[in-house]
Amino acid sequence: MIRINLLPYREKEQKAGIARQFIVMGAVLGAFLVLVLAVHLVVSSKISGLEEEIQTLESDLERLTKVVGDVEQYKEDKRVVEKKLAVIAQLEHNRLGPVRLLDGLTQLVPTEDVWLDRLSQSGTDLRIEGVARDNIAVVKFMKNLEGSDLIRSVDLQSTKETEISGIKLQKFILSCAMKRG
């Protein structure tokens, strides 16, 4: 005898297969959501850590910018002070220059033969105007000037005979180049 099973076992197996597929898909979807949530939490914690680090670095940058500004102001103040000190040193050097020049010239002038009327200085150029007994006294004065440590070179600009109080004298003009230092 032939038996026919009229119970829908294949449909049950299909429904069970579909149910298993839904369970597997649900589990995979759940695992995927858990994974996405875990990645989201890790990334958001890294972002918040980086934001805190950025805030710390920005506050450090702000503090260091103020320090750099202070250093730049210090450098500017130092440059100004050094410039003022250089001016003071130059003034101190120049203050004694004319005194040394006049002292040196008084030692070089032949006292009984040469009289100085005018001295004028422009930088390292010195112009001397005076009167001498004769040309020999002028030459002697020029040699004294050339031999000194104040004057580098001496040029005779002009000499002419003039009469003062009935005495014939030589009026002269000398141009000198002074040594630096």
Name its key features.
4 strands, single chain, Gyrase A, domain 2, 181 residues, alpha+beta, 4-stranded antiparallel sheet
Please explain how this structure is put together:
The chain is of the alpha+beta class. The protein folds into two domains: 9-108; 112-178, Gyrase A, domain 2 (2-Layer Sandwich), CATH 3.30.1360. It is built from two helices and four strands; from the N terminus they run H-E-E-H-E-E. The protein has helices at residues 9-108, 135-147; strands spanning 114-122, 125-132, 151-164, 167-178. The chain has a four-stranded antiparallel sheet, with helices on one face. The protein is rod-shaped and about 180 Å long. The model has no long low-confidence stretch (mean pLDDT 87).
Strand fraction = 15-25%
Largest sheet: 4 strands, antiparallel
Q: Which structural class should the secondary elements be placed in?
A: alpha+beta
Range of helix content: 55-70%
Quaternary assembly: single chain
Stretches with pLDDT under 50, minimum 5 residues: none
Using the alpha-carbon principal axes, give the shape: rod-shaped
Radius of gyration, in angstroms, nearest whole number: 53 Å
Overall average residue pLDDT: 87
DSSP, total strands: 4
Distance between the termini: 142 Å
Question: Spatial order of the strands in the main sheet?
Answer: 1-2-4-3
Number of helices: 2
Secondary-structure element order, N to C: HEEHEE
